Amino acid sequence: MNPRNVAILLFDDVEVLDFAGPFEVFAVASELHDYALFRVFTVAASTGPIRARNGLSVHPDYSLESAPRPDILVIPGGVGTRALMNNAAISGWIAAAAGPAELTLSVCSGALLLAKAGLLAGLRATTHHQVLELLREVAPDTEVIAGERYIDNGRIVTAAGISAGIDASLYVVGRLCGAAASARTAAYMEYRISR
């Protein structure tokens, strides 16, 4: 079986741990299993550098047009989501990539982008505690839940703020590859899983 493609969307002012946490979880899980589980890569509007929150410069692996089809799509958050909420190209790409994907995971205010792409209708969702009310406004047909680290709707998983993306990613590794793979990854990372 081929490794699952894990595509992580990047954009200016993305929250660093929102994308780096899941990147580390999926990459380490694969490394610990002879790179057989996941192929992790980053995607942005173009392959030019993006400036993450607090100035970190990151070079995406692929543009929206050149990215391989993801099996797992990760949409991080950060203040940059506000500028993207009404970006039709980004919303369209998220909707198109999520359609055939096995699973889509949002972290923090990345849930706003899922809502704008029409992916949260009729579902339960969570996000960063400071964004809960905005998500309720943007997604009035979504049950927005406070106080949960992550919520699993089957093909859509939403995580609360920042470090919760690590918990949700470890959960996804466990769901797709077994509890032992998740536990081994967390142990290697010296990470204590929260729920």
Query: CATH topology, which one?
Result: Rossmann fold
Radius of gyration: 15 Å
Would you list the SSEs in sequence order as H and E? EHEEEEEHHEHEHEEEHH
The total number of structural domains is: 1
Report the uncertain regions. Answer: none
Going by helix content, strand content and strand pairing, the class is alpha/beta
How many E strands?
Answer: 11
Major pleated sheet? 7 strands, mixed
- Order of strands across the biggest sheet? 5-2-1-6-7-11-10
Mean pLDDT: 96
Fraction in helix: 25-40%
C-alpha termini separation: 31 Å
Instruction: Enumerate how many helices there are, as a single number.
Output: 7
Backbone shape: globular
State the fourth-level CATH superfamily. Class I glutamine amidotransferase (GATase) domain
Task: Tell me the CATH architecture.
Answer: 3-Layer(aba) Sandwich
Strand content: 15-25%
Overview of this structure, please?
- 36% of the residues lie in helices and 20% in strands.
- The radius of gyration is 15 Å and the shape is globular.
- It is an alpha/beta fold and 195 residues long.
- It has a single domain (4-189), classed as Class I glutamine amidotransferase (GATase) domain (Rossmann fold).
- A seven-stranded mixed beta sheet has the order 5-2-1-6-7-11-10, with helices on both faces.
Structure, briefly:
By secondary structure, the protein is α/β, with parallel strands linked by helices. 36% of the residues lie in helices and 20% in strands. The chain has a single domain (4-189), classed as Rossmann fold, CATH 3.40.50.880.
